[in-house]
Structure formats: structure tokens, C-alpha cells
Amino acid sequence: MTDLSSALQIAAPEVTLAVGGLVLLMIGAFTGEKNTRLVSGLSVLLLVAATVLTVTGPLGQAFGGTYIADPLAVYGKAVIFLSAAVAIVLGDVWMHRNNMAKFEYPVLITLSSIGLGMMASSGDLISMYIGIEMSSLALYVLAAYRRDSLHASEAGLKYFVLGALSSGILLYGASLIYGFAGSMKFEEIAAFASNNPGPGLIFGMVFLIAGLAFKVSAAPFHMWTPDVYQGAPTPVVALFATAPKVAAMILIARVLIDGFNLAHFQWAQVVILISLISFAVGSFGGLLQKDIQRLLAYSSIINIGYALLGIAAGTQMGVQAMLMFMTLYVVDQLGFFAILLSLSRNGRPIRSISDLAGLKQERPVTAIALTILALSSVGIPPLSGFWGKYYVFGAAADAGYWMAGAAGLVASVVAAFYYLRIIKVMWFDAAETEVKTDKAPVVPQWVGWAAAAFAFPVLLVALTWLEPLTKAAAAGVGVG
Fold first, then answer.
1. CA–CA gap between residue 177 and residue 166 (Å, rounded)
2. What is the helix (H) or strand (E) element at residue 51, kind and residue range?
3. How far apart are CA 222 and CA 220, in angstroms?
4. Fewest CB within 10 A of the end CB: N or C in the chain?
């Protein structure tokens, strides 16, 4: 009983979310849609409570080593839970504004966060798979949230079918690894791989990487991303672009560096190849896009390529660079989507880049904030995007992968074109005289402004507290 009690204390964030999520589901089911705002508010408080329990809770292993609470998991889950809470706040405003408010939205995000937290704390292949599926099942439903929309239904179906395919690939790789290593635990797999780095184990590892690459929408496993980003509601896309990607990147770092550290040369080649393909697809694929959310899908592909470059280094510096990049990326993305959620014309959400024409006259502060976030995504110094790439490229060069870093710089230059096009439309194109921008909801507008304000003086922030936090989190990974 003592062991169970200590295990539940270590896993308190996920346990709290599970119990609270079920209570919220019952509240919503019995009270109906009239208490949607109440359920949303309680969901946000639940995620904040889970964040507090994560930061203040005990470290250690639970349930026979299948669940790990270490500095990496603590840092990752704090980012995951807080970004999920912001997604609920943004979604609640947007859903009410578009007559789509339902209590299922915050409940699904809360339940998905349980799986995302498990992904960050996975200690073996089974807990890894359970965490992925727990989060994915809720995300499939969220992708098709607009049941009256053909695009949303198509997005949900594509995400589900391709997600099932990736799960099969992931399971096949895990079964191969278990068959050769004789264990599911990452630390025991690492011990076996150090003495028996045979082709069978490497083959299973490649399949595992392919399955995980789907979860972060890395090319060439990105097929679902543009369609899902275009078809899903904007607040759902804001969630897709942040919390699940952080969880999956931490999981990839834990699997590869904890489980296959001594086979670094083999898996680093695969990760770098995926990173290079992501650079090409993300940079050139976004050039012809006119839909903002579809453009942001290609932007996410190229940014995942940068994060994977940090993991490919296989060093503590590389893991820290990945954490720095993903944290700054999440802030930029939440700000970008918050501004999109605050804009509409004649009651219609802004979806096309051309809809931003004339924003400087109608919303000058919002136009400045969106300009800062777009320039940050490009990587213009001294904005946050520049420092994220600075850490990643530094880690890659330090590990000897400077050619891959150079390819990332070229891709960043190409991708600058579609971000500069957004800025050009906002500041230099004339708006249609008969179409005016509607009054902005307060919460999304302030979230967007706050993200832009964070992106601008981020050098000071990074040097004072973000860099030490990511360094401490990276030290928890079993790097060689």
C-alpha cells in the first residue's frame, strides 16, 4: 500500500486530471450547454492545479519504472498543461462568438492532457504507447469538432486513418525492439543496445522513429497536417500546434537518448534526414498557400525540423536547445493564433491572408503585434525565434552537424517569404471599403499582445530564467 501511495503522489498531475475530467464530464452531461463557461473555467483551474502539482510534487519513478518524474518531465508538463489551458480560454471565447460552444471542448482537452503528460513521463514502450493513444483519441474528435462542416469531417477522418497507420508502424517497431532486447524499459533497452547493437534492433528503432515523426508532423510523415490545420476550428489548431508537439518532442528525446544513446550514430542519421526533408517541405510548401491556417501547417513542419536538429546532436546541449526552441515556439504560436481568433469581418473568421489587408488602419496595435510574431517566426534578431534557432544551430554545430544547420538557415530564408507576405498585406494593401473588421474580443487580443511583448525582450528573459530552467531539465536525460 505504501508503494501505491508513493506512486500516486508521483503521478498526482495525471491522476488529478483524470478524476477532474470525469467530474467535469458529469457536470456537462447533467447540466447541458448552459454551463459551458463553468466547465471551461473549471478545466483551466484543473490544468493550473496539475501544473502546480507537477512543479511541487516529488521526483522519482512509479509503477515499476514505467512512469518517470524527472526534471525533463516536470518542465515539459508545465509547458504542456499551461498551453492547453490557454487553448481552452481562447477556444471558449471563439466558440461562443461563432455559436459553437459545447462543454465537450474543454473536457476533451483536459482528457487529452492526461495522455500528453504520460508521454512526457514515459519510462517504457507500453506507457509511451498508452500516452500517445490517450491523447490522440481526444485529438481525433477535436479535429472533427465542427460536425456540420465538410472540411472538419474530412480533417478528422484523415487524421484518424493516418493516425491509425502511424500507430501500427509504432507498434511494429516497439515489438521488434522488445523481441531483440527482451525488455520494454528504456534503461534496459539501452543496456542491451550497448552490447548488442544488431541490425534487428536498429530496424525496430527506425520504425519507432517513423511512428513518432507522424505525431510531430515531421516530413515525410506530414500528410495529415495541412488538411487538418485547414479544416479544424482555429482554437483546436492552436492546441495542435503547441501542447502535443512539446509532448512528442520530449518523448522522442527520451526514447532515443535514454534508450539508444550508444547507437547515436545510427539514429542521428535518420533524424537528420527527417529534419532536412522537413526543411524542404515546410519552406517550399508554404510559398503557394493562401489560407493562413494551412500556411501555419507548413510553418510547423519546418519548425519541427529545427527541433529535431537539436535532438540529433544527442547531447545535453542539444536537448536544452530543443526545449528552448519548443518553449519559444509555443509562445509565438499561441500569440499568432490568439490574434487570428480576435479578428473577424462581418461575423466571419479571418482565414485568408488577403483578409488581413488594411489591418494597420483598423487595428494598429494588433498589426504591430502580428508583425513582431511573424518576424519572430522568421528568426529576425533579437526576437524569440532568433534565439530558439540560435540554440539549435549551436548544438548542431557543436555536434559536428554544421551542414544540416546550414540547410536550416537556407530553409529559414525561403520561409521568410510567406511571413513577409503577411506583413506586406497588413501594412501596404488596401482593405475593401465595404468590409470592416469586427470588434475584437478582449481575451484573445490581450493574449496575442502579451505573446508579442514576450517575443521582443526575450533575450533578457532567456538569460535570467528560461536558460537555467531548460539546462536543469536537459540534465535529467541520460546523455553520454
1. 17
2. helix 36-56
3. 6
4. N
Q: C-alpha grid cell for residue 274?
A: 527527417
In order of 207, 263, 271, 315, 380, the CA distances from 258 in angstroms are: 17, 11, 15, 11, 34
Instruction: List beta partners, residue 355.
Output: none
Contact between 237 and 337 under an 8 Å Cβ cutoff? The reply is: yes
Q: Give pLDDT tens digits for 50-96.
A: 999 999 989 999 888 899 999 999 999 999 999 999 999 998 888 87
Main-chain phi, psi angles of 291, to 5 degrees: -80, 130
Q: How far is residue 231's CA from residue 426's CA, in Å, rounded to a whole number? A: 24
What residue has cell string 501555419? Answer: 296
Per residue in 432-480, pLDDT (tens digit) is 654 455 566 778 888 888 888 888 766 566 667 888 888 888 886 754 4
Looking at 307-439, which runs of residues are DSSP E strands? 344-345, 348-349
What DSSP string describes 52-100?
HHHHHSPPEEETTTTEEE-HHHHHHHHHHHHHHHHHHHHHHHHHHHTT-
Q: Whole-angstrom Cα distance, residue 424 to residue 168?
A: 44
Tell me the C-alpha distance between 214 and 252, whole Å: 11
